[in-house]
Structures are given as C-alpha cells and as structure tokens.
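Morning. Coffee machine broken again, so started the prediction first thing and wrote up yesterday's gels while waiting. Chain of 342 residues, entered below exactly as on the submission form.
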Amino acid sequence: MGSNSNEGHYSVESRLLSAYARLQLQNRYILYFFYSVFLANQGYCSSSKHRSDQWTREARYTNMHASWHLQLPALTNVYLTWKHNSSLNVAQTSAHKFQVTAVHVFELDYFHDITQQHKEVANVSLLHVGLLGCSPTAPTVAISLQCLELYHQLRRWQSSFSIQAFTKVLCAIHNVNYAQTFHDQFSIAFDIYLTILRSVRSQVDMALSRTDPDWRLRHGCLPCMFEVSQPNECLLYPASLKAMDGNNSAKHMANAGSANLCIFPSRYMIPLDQVDVFKDDVRLRPGEHGADQLTFCTDNWKATNSTEENTVRVFEQTGIFLSACRHRIIQMVTEMRRSGEL
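Came back before lunch.
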C-alpha cells in the first residue's frame, strides 16, 4: 500500500507540472502571436527575424566607398604617424570613449576601450592605437594593423591563400566558431588597408616626381632601360627583348560582381577607355574568318582561334594579355573584353 500511495503521490505531482508547462507554453504562443502582429504593423515580415532591407547591395557599396573616401586623407596621415611612432601622445580634452572588439593575431579583446577626440572620426581614433575598423561610420569590430599586414604578405607570396582561410585560422587560434560575418568584416578592413597603402605610395611617387603614368614602363627594369653613355661602348641591337602572351583562363562573367562599381587603380592595367579605342580595328565578328585569310596558324594553334560567339555573350572578360621583359618583369597588362587574342 505504501508503494502504491507513493506512486499516486508522484503521479499527481507530475500531472500538476505537466499542466503548468502547458499553460506556460500556451502563454508563450499567445505572446508570440501578438508580437508577430506588432512586427507586421511596423513593416516587418512576421515569418522572418530580419527587417526587410530597402537598400540594394549596389547602394550599400556606393555609400560605404564614399564614406571611406572622405576619411582617406586623415587615415593616411595617422597611419604614417603610427608607422613611425609606436606610441602617440593625444590630448585628452573633450574626449569620450567607446568599445570595440579588437582582433589581433594571437589575442582577442572583446571590450577594448578607444579614446575619441572631439570631431574625430572613429577610425582615426582606432588608427592611433594600431587598429582599423570594419565599418566607416560606427565600427564595433576592429582588426589590428599587424594582422592585416601579415595577411598582406601572405597574399603576396601565396595568392591562393584566401580571406576565408585566414579568418578560419584566426577563429581556430581564438577558439571561436567561424561565421560568414568574419569573412565580410575582414574583407572590408583589408580593402581599406590596401587603399591606405596605395595612398602612401601615391604620396611617395609625387614627392619623387613619378606621377607620369609611363614612368614605371620606362624605368621598371633597369637593365632593359639602361642607355649607353660611354662613347666607346656599342649600342645593343635590339635594345631590349619583350614577350607578349595571353591567358584565356582568367575569365569574368558578364553578370558577376555587378553590384560593386568601385574601380581598382592599377599601375599595370591599361584603362578600359584606352583599350576600347582599338575595338573597331578588327572588322570580323568572333567566329568568322576572311575569305583570303590563311588558316594554317589557326588550325595548329588553339590560342589563335577566334573566340566563339557564345563565349563572348557569357563572359565580359575572356582573359588577360600581358607584356614582360626578358628579366620576367611585367610591363603592362590588359583585359581581353568580349574577344580573344585578336
């Protein structure tokens, strides 16, 4: 009898707990229903946790690049100051503090205090302490300049080492689960870091009177561009040897990457407006041959075949074409846009 009464006692308690759990679950469903109605009235989608974004990706990229461009002169000056002075004495008048998550190579600080002066951009304040934010306006995550420079050198010597691979390495070091957000944040910070380095190089070129677009082409390889100055020394004939070749593997689809309209400034790439000047010199359409054209070369060499019409329609860039000297120094590079090796 004792065991039966004890079992009855536990069964009553379990029933009470079950009824209480059902009541709490029902109240939660009711609250969720009213909350969904409230979100729907406020313009939110009740079936999604995120607010519907009216901005397109192209508009977001345009605004982000415009904000970074306004800050670039100040960021360049502060970067040069930080580069040559590890510690800066900044006045503390009319200053306030904000916190960011500072990502270093071997350290991760979730609450890093940053002192921001009056009328000073947040990223300028971050650069004073060797950090660079992942947003141009209100950064919450900042990457250390040492970390960005480490990845910069890795990419210079191993171009296939992607940002995703490097961010996964950082997550493994910091014992953090990888997310796509880390890739996007690091990509933004790395892009503006390279922009700052290009701005520094532009200032150096201006100081050394190297602003001529053809300066590197004339002085890139000293042995090839060396001119005989001794009276008894014979002139070289030919003066220099150069080679040109194309790469049909570097293709770019016409509808890929159309949201980002930012143009990358390069000292090697020939601008598109200069290349398009010669677009009408080839009168034949892709895939066509003239009646009196010799086909011996095209029958034996694949690179000389004209690009197919379908390839021209799908790919905006069908490859690249570059020129190099005999010392393997790249002279100029151009894109093959909707054509082959003409």
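Strands lie at 96-103, 108-116, 131-133, 141-144, 242-247, 252-253, 315-325, 330-337. Going to sketch it on the whiteboard this afternoon.
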